[in-house]
Design a protein that fits this description.
Blueprint (H helix, E strand, L loop, with lengths): L1 H19 L3 H4 L1 E8 L5 E5 L1 H4 L10 E7 L11 E5 L9 H5 L2 E3 L4 E4 L12 E6 L8 E7 L13 E8 L1 H6 L11 E9 L2 E4 L5 H7 L11 E9 L9 E2 L5 E3 L3 E6 L12 E4 L9 E8 L6 E3 L2 E4 L5 E8 L67 H6 L4 E3 L2 E5 L1
Parallel strand pairs: 1-9, 10-20
Antiparallel strand pairs: 2-7, 3-6, 3-8, 4-7, 5-6, 8-9, 10-11, 11-16, 12-15, 12-17, 13-16, 14-15, 17-20, 18-19, 21-22
């Protein structure tokens, strides 16, 4: 009996080792994507760039499509219909469902050799259902150049799995926050009317320092959670967030994370928030936390479930363009001296002009600036994008023969 246990254990080990050595053509490449459902009974999926070849025909000889329900069981297609992107997908299109496509009880199959009219828009799908809630379902697409999927439903060169989820799925995902960090910082954001504009450039270098990123490198793995609430700690309804990368979690939290290893520039941290007309920024408090420990983060449907260990907390002070602080010695970006010298700093904000005759006020970020000047007071100018316009403008004059202009 003892020998049998050892033998079985060795055989299991050998089997695992053999499976690991099987060629990639059998297992194939696997990709997973998350798709949010605005309507739980229908969804559009564009796979044209994935499945369409450069010759306007399919990239693969055989393609298989099917659905898995929440328990990963194969779904009967009686109440699920696959059609072209620009149709209502009621299985009435004879070209789509006849020329190269075959529908079985549980699968749609595509044969390149039977498709005679090309695939310019063939793989832009619209999926309709009859009273089938697709929340939590998976849409699985397998492609192969050798397996026709008639008998072998598994072997493929590549597999794409689309996880379908709705707001109810998101709400059901628990959100576990990390302990607040001990490092607490401050930053500023500009408020203009109902808008709040935060510039990532204002603290990008400081964030790099906190995360241990070299000054010559970009931030890569990164997590940030904004917390936005009223000063009495109640939620803010109907808040508009400019960045589509930011996910709302629960009532107060807005999250963006990057775990792909790609670089994050300062502009990727820019955020514009807009309140409804009934609200005022005077009654809002903002903060955000950051982390580099992205490997600790867990998700469901691409939604954060468990937060990583946090590196710093930033409390945000809202200022107008008149009150926004500007420190001459370190610049608006609050970057310290380098080799004992101040770094060049830029002040950037947007001014909306309705028509060509409207006059607008442009404010330079000078602290107690006086026309007479001070020894340590910075000098500055507004620089337009068109030099010919600069030279032709009666409002701009040359400054003491230097290549610079003053209003």
């Amino acid at each position: 009996m003892f020998k049998s246990k050892i033998f079985n254990s060795v055989m299991r080990y050998m089997l695992v080792a053999m499976l690991a050595l099987l060629p990639n053509a059998i297992w194939g490449e696997n990709y997973t994507n998350n798709i949010f459902l605005t309507d739980v009974n229908r969804v559009s999926i564009d796979m044209q760039s994935i499945l369409g070849g450069s010759d306007k025909y399919a990239k693969y000889n055989y393609i298989e499509f099917y659905f898995l329900d929440k328990s990963d069981a194969i779904v009967d297609l009686s109440n699920i219909k696959l059609g072209l992107w620009n149709s209502e997908s009621n299985d009435a299109n004879p070209d789509f469902n006849g020329d190269g496509f075959k529908k079985t009880k549980n699968y749609y199959l595509f044969y390149k050799e039977k498709n005679g009219w090309g695939c310019e828009n063939l793989f832009r799908f619209k999926i309709n259902t009859t009273n089938v809630d697709l929340s939590g379902y998976k849409f699985v697409v397998k492609a192969s150049n050798t397996n026709n999927f008639e008998t072998d439903k598994t072997t493929a060169d590549v597999t794409y799995t689309y996880q379908l989820y709705s707001q109810s799925n998101i709400d059901a995902v628990t959100f576990t926050k990390a302990t607040d960090p001990t490092s607490v910082k401050s930053a500023y954001a500009l408020k203009e009317g109902n808008k709040c504009i935060f510039s990532g450039a204002s603290i990008y270098d400081e964030i790099k320092s906190i995360l241990g990123v070299s000054s010559k490198e970009d931030i890569k793995d990164f997590y940030i959670r904004w917390t936005i609430k009223h000063t009495d700690d109640t939620k803010v309804d109907n808040l508009t967030v400019s960045s589509g990368k930011i996910q709302k979690r629960k009532d107060f939290d807005y999250i963006y994370f990057n775990n792909t290893g790609s670089s994050i520039q300062a502009k990727d941290l820019d955020v514009t928030l807009e309140l409804p007309s009934s609200e005022s920024w005077d009654n809002i408090k903002l903060s955000f936390v950051i982390s580099k420990n992205i490997s600790e983060l867990t998700t469901q449907y691409g939604i954060v479930e468990k937060e990583p260990t946090l590196n710093a907390l930033y409390n945000i002070t809202l200022e107008t363009k008149y009150s926004m602080p500007f420190n001459h010695y370190v610049g608006h970006a609050n970057t310290a001296f380098e080799n004992g010298m101040q770094q060049t700093a830029e002040w950037e904000y947007y001014v909306y002009v309705k028509d060509a005759n409207e006059k607008v006020e442009l404010v330079l970020p000078f602290d107690e600036y006086e026309n007479s000047g001070k020894d340590l007071e910075p000098q500055g100018y507004f620089r337009w994008y068109d030099l010919k316009t600069d030279l032709a403008s009666p409002q701009i004059r040359n400054l003491l023969g230097f290549v610079g202009f003053c209003l």
